[in-house]
Amino acid sequence: MLKTPRKLIIAIDGFSSSGKSTIAKDVAKNLHFKYLDTGAMYRAITYKILKHNIDLQDMQSIQNLLDKTSIDFKLVKGENHIFLDDVDIEDKIRELEVANNVSEVSTIQIVREFLVKLQQEIGKSGNIVMDGRDIGTVVFPNADVKFFVSASLKTRAKRRFEELKAKSNDKNLKIEEVEANLVKRDKIDSERKHSPLKVAEDAILIDTENMTKQEQLNFVLEKINEKIK
Ligand code: DC
Fold this sequence. Notes:
The protein has a single domain (10-217), classed as P-loop containing nucleotide triphosphate hydrolases (Rossmann fold). Helix content is 50%, strand content 17%. It contains 9 helices and 8 strands. The chain has helices at 20-31, 38-51, 59-67, 96-106, 109-123, 135-139, 153-167, 175-191, 213-228, and strands at residues 9-14, 34-37, 71-76, 79-84, 87-88, 128-132, 145-150, 204-207. The protein binds 2'-deoxycytidine-5'-monophosphate.
């Protein structure tokens, strides 16, 4: 285990299905740090908005919904699950309907403000690995070590497709559909007005295309070691 002189915040940002969650989880486990999946938080709000049939232009209703929303993470059989208003919705947030709407919801400023505040609250005690899109740029611009993860569109689509296939009962799921969803999300995530997906100036780049999981983990741990020396 790494001997850390202070409480560290590790930011891992990147594109959808770039492999950042896997790296972030592995790093957290290795360092005995907490892990925060901020994408799951945007998915949880999207799930709730869809469930209540709220129009994405209706800011008053969205604000009312946020005012009555609690988000927590708890360990379920050793896995980190997200709880929305005390209900485990880990499976629900990975469904395609949520995936198809989450980027749109993530452009809404009041949603971002609500979640960024919560993420800062959870992260401030340190020794945490956070994965998302804007951790190193907006949530914790002073994070101790920042990474930006990427991989080709084809590889990302293949990974997400396998993941969805393993989890869902949808026999009609097509890889083309998953790829189209990624293209759409990349575009919205990168072009949105409020905290768009961009590489922090001091982020370390990782292209996971031709790296095994072990190589990715070793690379990240080595960089963290170098940085905190
Ligand atoms: O990492 P993910 O695919 O689960 O993220 C789902 C969506 O949430 C993604 O399309 C963009 C948004 N998101 C964001 O805007 N900011 C974050 N810190 C994390 C996710």
